[in-house]
Amino acid sequence: MNNRALIVIVSTILWFIAFALQGAGLVASDPHVFVGGIPLPVLYTLIMGLWGVVNSLLAYFIWAPGFYERAYKLLEEE
Amino acid sequence: MDLVSIVLIVIGSYLAIMLAIGYWGYKKTKATPEDYYLANRTLGILTLSMTFIATYASMWTFLGAVGGNYRLGLTFASMMMMWNLLWPMMLWLFGPRVWLVGKKYGYITYSELINDYYGTSLLGALAAVIGVIALVPYISVQLMGAGIALESFTKGGIPYIWGVSLMFIVMVIYVLIGGLRSVVWTDVLQGIFFLTVMLGLSLYAVHLVGGFGSLFTKIVVENPDLLTPGKQGFGIWIGYVLTWGNAILLPHMFQRLLVAKRLETLGKSAASLSILSGWVQTIPVFLLGISATILVPGLTGKATDAATIEFATRYLPLWLAATVVAGAFAAGMSTLDSQLLTSSSLLLRDLYVNPLKKKLPPEKETFYARLLVLILGIIIMIFALSRPGLIVPISTAGTAIAISSYFFPLIGALYWPRAGKVAAYGSIVVAAVTAIVTWIVLPFPLGIYNVLWGLILGGITYVILGLIAPPPPKESIDKFHGLFKKL
Question: What HEC string does B200-244 produce?
């Protein structure tokens, strides 16, 4: 496994854990705390949402390109 | 003009457009199974992304998920955000390798892939039976939703049977004649339509409450639980996330991994779907759900599923409210058409052509595929007209059964060359039985949702049998893992 794939995988696992902590009610659970006019739990969910998008973009931009080239070569081999 | 006439004009116009697209698909479709089921593997970024999102988001998203946010607020929204981001990420885990072997060896269904890898023809048949069990009730939910939405919106002016029949007739015609081409192009239009309707509705609801600041302040004062996460047990929370986060394993979603024209298309779709599914779908549903607690107060239990329709009826002009009902139709039909087409492929290829090693001419196989679409459609229509009360829990459990059963045999085929067919049979049976038992006999032991029990026991079975039973045939390992090693 190359370093690029590792970055994507580690980021995704950390994202999963951070999001699950909110699902368990262990972090960012007090709605009375406002940050920039947004309740903290809502803000935390939005940040997790952004992080999730970043994971997909990371996969697309840093991991996928080399993979595509190798896959097409394999398809041409017979 | 009276309510029923307005609704019939709006819904009728919408359905006429769907039929026109279906006819266009028919003119383009060739009489081969690969063209009928997979549009000859030629989908580009727009069609692939939109057919993924439109197939994934169903009538339940439009009605039930708004109700879920109405009842549980952020607890539901954070769960929905996570699974709506997780399934595009799972595209990266399964998508490229499935696409590669699908393209190289010509697979049309999940069963064909695992049959070939594990060197058996009955494993796929078993998976197909589970797939049909998962899909048939799920399909009926969409039809029932159409009937209920029209009946409740028109206060009984359009009876349930009319709503069900309208959706059924139009959808069966375009799936029957145009196959996947009709399905994906109607999906493009329907996806754009229902996402736009949901976004517009949610922004209007927030505007009526007085803006975002006012919405959050009112809810924190009046009902802070709605913005407090973790109000549902974690076992159920993570169970829902793992069920819908792995939705790519459902037969009608899995087939979409095989239809991309190029591998980049699949990668671009995965990236764009993280925005379309994670944000464009989730945030409006959350905003509409929590705004409705202020604008349409007092709904409880199952009545919260009608929050979208109630809101539209109270706050929108009649013709616009009818457009919202058409949006619900779009969400339902775009899921239903794909499920029907895939169910036909499961029955024809995985339970007839492959296990019995039939060699049918392409025209004849395509004819049978169309015939099965019609027969299945009629069975599902009869099922929906009987209005079974347990349809929603049955469809949810069916989904959980399919996902927990399909997971490990596919992981083995793509990533772990050690486990052979004994492990695959064992895992499918143990996961399916566990998911059924932990739903019906011992409902959700320790507060953990049935998909998780199915995955845990199915996974343990797969690993143990994988280590002690024979591995897959050497030629299969070379064919799959030999190929993947070069990636």
Answer: HHHHHHHHHHCCHHHHHHHHHHHCHHHHCCCCCCHHHHHHHHHHH
